Amino acid sequence: MDQITIANAQRLIQLIDCMRANQPRSPLFQQLGEWGLSMSHMRLLGLLAPDRELSMRELAEALGITPPSLTALSRRLVQNGLVERRPHPDDSRITLLALSEAGCKLHRDLETERLGHMARLLAGLSHAEQQLFLDLLERAMRT
User: Fold this and answer.
1) In the 8-state DSSP scheme, what is residue 94?
2) Who's near 133: CB < 8 A, 6+ residues apart?
3) Cβ atoms 78, 84 nearer than 8 A
4) CA 90 to chain centre
5) Do the beta carbons of residue 22 and residue 124 sit within 8 Å?
6) What is the signed CA dihedral for 106, 107, 110, 115, rounded to 10 degrees?
7) Cα–Cα distance for residue pair 63/55, rounded to 1 Å
8) How far is residue 107 from each of residues 4, 17, 34, 128, measured CA to CA in Å?
9) Are 103 and 48 in contact (CB under 8 A)?
10) Closest-CA residue to 124 (of 17, 4, 22, 13)
11) Which helix (H) or strand (E) holds 17?
């Protein structure tokens, strides 16, 4: 990799770190910390939102983790009343996971908050600049 790309990669890391550091810790995100929930837990909630029921195997594959890791990850969400375990209607060997009512509300609230943060971030750019920024980011992610 060339030196300019490496320098730009370092700048990108610094910008992402700065963006994270400058985001105020909302009561909602503080609650997640108190519950011991991580970004992996949030990704799992997102896979089940708004009203999907997925098997443990499907979720493990989607998250790129092993079934035992998913069991540990989902346990905390079940304990906090955010996810429910349900039997598969046709196969008693399969357990399905779905968001509880509290999990749906949490996911909705988190998405609203995240959308607000991203809108504030983009607000400093014109609409054309926003489009260019997003197009370039998408292109960079495809490589």
Assistant:
1) -
2) 122, 125
3) yes
4) 30
5) no
6) -150
7) 12
8) 39, 24, 16, 30
9) yes
10) 22
11) helix 3-22
Q: For residue 29, is pLDDT > 90?
A: no
pLDDT at position 24: 66
Q: How far is CA 79 from the centre of its chain?
A: 19
What is the pTM for the complete model shown? 0.78
Question: pLDDT tens, 101-113?
Answer: 999 999 999 899 8
Mean pLDDT, residues 124-137: 95
Q: What percent of the chain has pLDDT over 90?
A: 70
Find, among 94, 111, 119, the residue nearest to 26 by Cα: 111
User: Residue 24: which of 126, 120, 105 has the closest Cα?
Assistant: 120
Q: Are 76 and 35 in contact (CB under 8 A)?
A: yes
